[in-house]
Write a structure and sequence with these properties.
One of its GO terms (biological process) is dGTP catabolic process. It comes from Siccirubricoccus deserti. GO terms for molecular function: dGTPase activity. This is Deoxyguanosinetriphosphate triphosphohydrolase-like protein. Keywords: Hydrolase. This protein is mainly α and about 400 residues long. It has 3 domains: about 45-200, Hypothetical protein af1432, CATH 1.10.3210.10; about 205-325, no CATH class; about 330-395, no CATH class. Helix content is about 60%, strand content about 0%. It has helices at about 45-55, 55-60, 80-100, 100-110, 120-130, 140-150, 165-170, 180-190, 200-225, 230-235, 235-250, 255-285, 290-295, 305-325, 325-350, 355-360, 365-380, 380-395. Helix 5 runs parallel beside helix 15 (about 325-350).
Length: about 400
């Protein structure tokens, strides 16, 4: 007697897409842009958003904004630009397998770090400490500000005039916002983004892709920077399994290739886990639209509990062995001082700002001046911030 036919699996084999899911964001039903624009463009709304993001000055400057190591420590290490490209690749892969809109996921992945200041988290901590009397500094809010105000490329409006769906995902890809930062609250009054709900599944995919890329490229960079060995990282279950698989598959593999093969396997395993766990959650929720995803009590995109635990173990390892390594500590302290001193000098003396910035700075020491100086510094690359610091502090260097 022949076997009964099997029900189709909700998770397609690697590389094979599902048909568009009912809960994917529909490009034909976008909520539009703050400033209406003429139609007729053959690209989807999210493809247009992606293209606008790629052509910004903020996106180009990511090439010289670092993740952990300052730009001059080596050409091999990741920058914010290479990180964003890696996040976009992972986000597209996950979105494709879940039947989501790949273009929206990609646009969000490419835009998510536009608001990062120079020197990575050290620069963010420095600006946050200086901006505390004025509402603080948050790179997610700054990313929204970049695409809605600071990029001045179009005659008809400030910013990029991205779609509602891209702005919503950029603002709350990490979850609902109960206490918005000053700029997000200000923008939401102008163009409501439904801050207390979840973002689309595509935005949630971009957020998980960021976690996957971040941990794995820091493992790669950490080994190559010799702040820890691959064998030390392989004491962790997730890394160890991939490491042993790579060695078993290639007995005479070289050291560099072993690192790459291990990291590649870890990424694949994490992507597979996200696809399977998300498919399980969607089967339970049974959403019929993208709005059902937004209204869900919990995120629908995520790791399984075992993978979340393994991912947390990797984070803790990286925190202790890399982010708090003495070399990184030294670089962070120097970088924070540079960013803090730049802010203090320019906030107290906006007459030292370039002409186009000085004209909008307001009174020295004022809140308006603080916000403008913060925007000025946040847009700097590592290299430009160091050069500006030298110009403002070294009498032997002309301004």
């Amino acid at each position: 007697m022949p076997d009964a036919p099997r029900a189709p699996s909700p998770v397609p084999p690697l590389g094979r897409p599902l048909a568009r899911a009912p809960w994917a964001v529909d490009p034909t039903a976008s909520r539009g842009r703050l400033h209406p624009e003429p139609g007729g463009d053959p690209r989807s709304p999210w493809q247009r958003d992606r293209d606008r993001i790629i052509h910004t000055g903020a996106f180009r400057r990511l090439q010289y904004k670092t993740q952990v190591f300052v730009f001059h420590e080596g050409d091999y290490f990741r920058t914010r630009l290479t990180h964003s490209i890696e996040v976009a690749q992972i986000a597209r892969a996950i979105a494709r397998r879940l039947g989501l809109d790949e273009d929206l996921a990609e646009a969000l992945a490419l835009a998510h770090d536009l608001g990062h200041p120079p020197f990575g988290h050290a620069g963010e901590e420095a600006l946050d400490s200086q901006m505390r009397p004025y509402g603080g500094f948050d790179h997610n809010a700054q990313s929204l500000k970049v695409v809605t105000q600071l990029e001045a490329r179009y005659a008809a409006f400030d910013g990029l005039n991205l779609t509602w769906e891209t702005l919503e995902g950029l603002a709350k890809h990490n979850g609902p916002i109960r206490r918005p930062s000053p700029y997000i609250a200000e923008y939401d009054r102008l163009h409501p983004l439904e801050l207390t709900s979840h973002a689309s599944a595509e935005a949630q995919v971009a957020a998980l892709a960021d976690d996957i890329a971040y941990n794995n490229h820091d493992l790669d960079d950490g080994v190559r920077a010799r702040v820890f060995t691959l064998e030390e990282a392989a004491t962790l279950p997730l890394i160890g399994d991939a490491y042993e698989e790579a060695r078993a598959a290639h007995a005479d593999i070289t050291r560099d290739r072993l690192v790459t093969e291990t990291v590649r396997r870890v990424i694949n395993r994490m992507v597979q886990d996200v696809v399977e766990e998300t498919s399980r959650r969607i089967a339970v929720l049974a959403p019929r639209s993208a709005d059902d995803i937004r209204a869900a009590p919990e995120p629908v995109v995520g790791f399984s509990a075992p993978m979340q635990a393994m991912n947390q173990a990797v984070r803790e390892f990286l925190f202790g062995r890399m982010y708090r390594h003495w070399r990184v500590n030294r670089a962070m302290q120097k970088s924070k001082r540079v960013a803090q001193l730049l802010f203090q000098l320019l906030h107290g003396g906006p007459q030292m700002l370039p002409d186009d910035w000085r004209a909008r700075a307001g009174e020295p020491g004022s809140p308006e001046c603080a916000r403008l100086v913060c925007d000025y510094i946040a847009g700097m690359t590592d290299r430009y911030a160091l050069e500006e610091h030298r110009r403002l502090t070294d009498p032997n260097i002309p301004g």
